[in-house]
């Protein structure tokens, strides 16, 4: 999985069968310290992300499997989550405690 920040939208006039109605977003990949990493990329949006959102992305086959309707379409990058809160620890330790919260999916 990768981090990325949504920077814009992409418009496509002709789409492959099975990708009609799929929102395409321009994403800046980020490293683990949230610094830009590489060139901008176009990703299929399955989580209704918006410009400025920090997202979790998947590549390759996992990207096409993330699509809701048709599987095995030629999608190479998909947004599969919007990050609500991120804590980066300097010692690279993890806190596995799940905090109680509200979002539109619970």
From TrEMBL:
GO cellular component: carboxysome
PROSITE patterns hit by this protein: BMV
Keyword Protein transport among UniProt keywords: no
UniProt keyword annotations, A-Z: Bacterial microcompartment, Carboxysome
UniProt entry tagged with the keyword Phosphoprotein: no
Subcellular location(s) of the protein: Carboxysome
Pfam families hit by this protein: EutN_CcmL
Coiled-coil portions: none
Record's protein name: Carbon dioxide concentrating mechanism/carboxysome shell protein
């Amino acid at each position: 999985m990768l981090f990325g920040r949504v920077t814009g939208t992409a418009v496509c006039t002709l789409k492959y069968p099975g990708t009609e109605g799929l929102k395409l977003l321009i994403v800046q990949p980020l490293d683990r310290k949230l610094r830009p990493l590489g060139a901008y990329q176009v990703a299929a949006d399955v989580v209704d992300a918006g410009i400025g959102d920090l997202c979790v992305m998947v590549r390759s086959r996992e990207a096409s499997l993330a699509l809701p309707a048709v599987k095995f379409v030629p999608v190479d990058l998909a947004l599969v989550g919007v990050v609500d809160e991120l804590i980066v620890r300097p010692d690279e330790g993890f806190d596995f405690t799940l905090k109680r919260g509200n979002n539109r999916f619970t």
